[in-house]
Amino acid sequence: MKANLTRRELLRLLAGAGLGTAFASRVVADEITAAPKSAPVPESKLVPLAERPRYPATLVGGRVIQPERPLKVVQETDVLVVGGGPAGFAAAVASARIGVKTTLVERYGYFGGQWTGGLVLVVISSHAKENGQLVKVLRGVGDELLERLTKIDSAVVNQAPGKFNPTTDPEATKFMMDEMIREAGVKVFLHCWVADVVMDGSVLRGVVFESKAGRQAILAKVVVDATGDGDVFAAAGAEHEQRLHAIGLVHRVGNADRTDAAKLKAAGVKALGSLEPLPSVKWVNLRGPSTDCLDVAELTRLEMEHRRSIWQRVQQLRKTPGGEGLFLLQTAPQLGVRISRLLAGTHQLTYAEAREGRKFADAVAVGGAQNAQHRGWPIPFGAMVPKKLEGLLAAGRCICVDEKLIEDMRLIASCLTTGHAAGTAAALSVQTGCRPREVEMAKLQKLLLGQGAYLG
Ligand SMILES: Cc1cc2nc3c(=O)[nH]c(=O)nc-3n(C[C@H](O)[C@H](O)[C@H](O)COP(=O)(O)OP(=O)(O)OC[C@H]3O[C@@H](n4cnc5c(N)ncnc54)[C@H](O)[C@@H]3O)c2cc1C
Fold first, then answer.
1. What is the rounded CA–CA span in Å between residue 449 and residue 51?
2. Which of 32, 338, 403, 453 has its CA 20 to 30 A from that of 317?
3. How many A from CA of 138 to the centre of ligand 1?
4. What angle do CA 372, 227, 248 make, to 5 degrees?
């Protein structure tokens, strides 16, 4: 592609991508204002300092003590979803579509969690095998997102009849998640890290979060913990367990289609990475050591060590006959944490139950099979409901499963479907004025089916 596009060419490109001329003109206008030819240094304006109450911690007897401080409540909502990964995205869209006020808080600047920010691009377990037939178990909000990606050039592969485990382009996925969140009318807080909870006795009433504006609060009738790591239910004191699991870092290589596969193979390189919609790019998974993702020193060490070994690997490939054109396109913006905290739910779903395909009266989703080689496994609502804590549901990779089922439960398809279920249940509990654990199952299942979900 040409490096310097004319305004007309850029408009045509953006319009071709379905972004419309209004959006295109704004982007172009912003670019021109930000860097006009006559003033290459971006404009900087002095603004009056906002009044900001300060509550610095103090050193008392060698200990750092925080003073009591009132927090500004920036939002009151019906359903609050914390975490905008596959689970949180689906939860927020499903809840908002039911018609309750829905808010989503995400610590990074985009949605998708490990899927987009972790560059884990293949949606495994989208299907299962029932009576010898391939059955799509990933339906509802998650499948709608994938279907919409099929309308965009080079955004998804293997999302078609007879295919399974689709792989998506991370930027197209982020773009489509933005679209669906916006269309559903979800109020979004990006760049906001939930650090604590607001409790009223044993009932969760909201969260405290940090941002560039300091510490603020959001109050909610129901909170969906879709942080992956159970940050909310842990802060609220809900019973849970913590596991150490392989922490990796995914990367992508570019120019993969300009290498010489035969020469690389002769040099002992079997594969450069996994398929992506763009033929020139491959993504490369990394397992990494099983360590503690709640220990920031470990995260720091791993991030830097993984990046160094990835850099060295790609440099080595570039020196290998056949791999000369290859380059390191990107390391994932976020470290690949697979599992940490798991909720103690009112039902712990086990591997044995899943393989047996046990039916549950409170089934709200169905898990798939890694290579679509075995049957789907119903997921009960009880796996998302804390034993005691009120006002919270969990979704995604932190719900209540036994050790052997973790590898299946944490896959993107199951996180999308449990997110869809948790968001719908949270919205229904608000609408009917009951506690989340008390939602009428027949009503919940009817709503889910009406939203295209698959319950077996
Ligand atoms: C290296 C690696 C390889 C994998 N390979 C595959 C694969 O090939 N196929 C597959 O299907 N699955 C794969 N997985 C699993 C899958 O990607 C994840 O389990 C899945 O994305 C989990 O979805 P989730 O929404 O539950 O959590 P996440 O994707 O982790 O999303 C959680 C979201 O919450 C946000 N968040 C967390 N804490 C806070 C907080 N305190 N405040 C505000 N926001 C917060 C995060 O920023 C993130 O956006 C892989 C995972 C890893 C790490």
1. 50
2. 338
3. 17
4. 65
pLDDT in tens, 23-79: 444 444 455 455 555 556 667 889 999 888 899 999 999 999 999 999 999 999 999
Give the position, in ligand 1's atom list, of the atom nearest the Cα of 398.
26
Find the mean pLDDT for residues 149-171: 98
* Residue identifier of the C-alpha nearest atom 19 of ligand 1: 410
Ligand 1 centroid distance, CA of 116 (Å): 9
Q: Which atom, in ligand 1's list, is nearest to the CA of 123?
A: 11
Pocket of ligand 1 (CB under 6 A): 82-88, 105-108, 113-115, 118, 120, 122-124, 193-194, 226-229, 231, 248, 250, 285, 336-338, 396-397, 410-412, 415
- Is residue 448 classed exposed, middle or buried when 0-12, 13-18 and 19+ CB atoms within 10 A define those classes? buried
Q: Is the confidence at residue 224, as pLDDT, over 50?
A: yes
Threshold 0.90, pTM exceeds: yes
Distances (CA, A) of 404 to 39, 148, 387, 410: 61, 34, 21, 11
